[in-house]
Amino acid sequence: MILTDPRKLFRGAAGDSFLLTLVRIVTLALGIVTTRIMSGYFSLHDYGTYSTVMLLTNSVSSITILGMMDGLNFFFCREKDPIKKNEYVATIFSIQYFIGIVAATVVLICAVPISNYFGNRDVKGLLIFAAILPVLQNSISLLQIMFVAIGKVKHIAVRNLGVSILKLCAIIAACYLVSNIIFVLICQVITDTLQILYFHMVLKKSGCSIPFFRFNRFLVKEIIIYCIPIAMSTIVRSLYRDCDKYVISYFTDSETLAVYTNASKQLPFDLVTSSFCTVLLPYLTKYISEKRYKQALSLYRAFLELSFITTSILAIGAICAAPELMRFLYTEKYTQASYSVPVFILYIAVDIFVVFTITLLLSASGKTLQIMLVSAGTFALNIILDILLFVHMKEIGPALATLITTVSQGMILLSLSAKQLQATISSFFELKYYASFILNSAVFALLASLVRNALIELNLNYFLVLCIVYAMYCLPVIAISYKRIKEDIKSINEYQL
Question: Where are the domains of the chain?
Answer without folding.
Answer: 10-244, 264-497
